[in-house]
Every structure is written in structure tokens, then in C-alpha cells.
Amino acid sequence: MEIDLEKPELKVVLPGDPINVTKKENIKLGPGLTQTQDSIICIKAGILNHTSVKNKWWVENNQRRYIPAEKESVIGTVTYKGGEFYRLDIGSAHQAILPILAFENANKKNRPNLNIGSLIYARISLANKDMEPELTCVNPESNKADGYGELKGGFVIKCSLRYCRRFFSGEIELISLLELLQKKKDFEMAIGMNGRIWITSTSIKDTIFCCNVIKGAENLNCSDINKVANSLGI
Fold it and tell me: Cβ distance 123 to 72 under 8 Å?
């Protein structure tokens, strides 16, 4: 089945479907797609998505197992502490490796001292199906942390991978919900593409409130998200 992507309506694709992309210049393939020679093939079932801003294509579905992809931000838990690297659970088939020098201004004498169970917000720097994914806490564009690093305090909620991608896609309703919530509660959050969202606020009560609001909007469509905000008195 060949997919005509010039039409705006949603397209359901299955593994093995060839994707007909007319403009292949600077194309970026996201989860669910792979390139073999000159052809682009779908490797999982879902809805084909495309953004013309960066000419990116990906397949969106409700899979539970996270498949690491380069340049994606994830939230992981430290499970192993070694002399040269840490191992983190990011919800994928294999644990990820975080080198001890993969932090801003880190060296052998000046490096973060993470413990087992620490939460880390990191960026995937290397992802290969035959290798363990590798993480970094430095933004390569600025050589700064830019929010990456250890997440202290707060609470982590688990949600679907699709829900996290909706935040990164700039969905207007979700962004508006966060803006309204920010006016009522002073909170911070970090969103991982691996289905984890970290939230912290000035008190435990406010943190729980923010978690309930954000978690409650997961299974709602765009038109109902604003109703959630109104029902909670935001």
C-alpha cells in the first residue's frame, strides 16, 4: 500500500508499507519509519504524521515499550553507578549508558555524584538497535545543560508515549492548559519522550494538584481539555 502524503487527512499505516515522500531533501525520520537505500518503509502500525517546518515524518501510536531515538529527551532512573559511567532505566528494552563526563563543565575532578535511584533528565546522543543507547546532559547546540541533569524532589507520572509527543508537537490546547495552570500554581516540569513527566512545585499539595490536572487531560481530546481546566477552577 503506497501512501500519498500530499493530502492533509490522517493516514493509517502498517509495517512494511512504503511511504511515498515527494520531497526528500533534509528529511528527518522519526519513530516508526526507516530508510532502506532509496525507499522509506514503515516498521510499526499507527497514524502517519508530518510537519513541514523541519520536514519530519513519524508514526504515532499507543505502544508501551519506548524505542530510543537520537535527539529525544528522556527521564531515567539511575540503576548502576560505575567509575566511568552510570546505567539508567529509561523504559526501553535495554538500559541506557550515561558517561560521567556527559555533563556541563564535567571533568575527572569535577563531576556530579549521582546515587542509585536518582532521576535524570537527559538527551539521547546515540541510539542503535544493536547497542545500548547512550545519553548526555549537555545540549550540543549551546554546550550548556539547558535544563538537563539531575531532577531533585518532585514526582514522576507515567503516561502514554503519544501524550508526551503531543506536548512536544506544540498542541495549542495542552500549551494553554499549562499556561492556565502556571497562573494558579508555581510549578516546574520536565517531559520525557519515554512516557514520563516530572513535576515539582512549592509544596507537596500543589505538586499533587498539578499532577492530577496534567494526568487527567491525557485521554481527552482537544475540545475537552479546556473543560478540565474550568472544572478544576483554574
Answer: yes
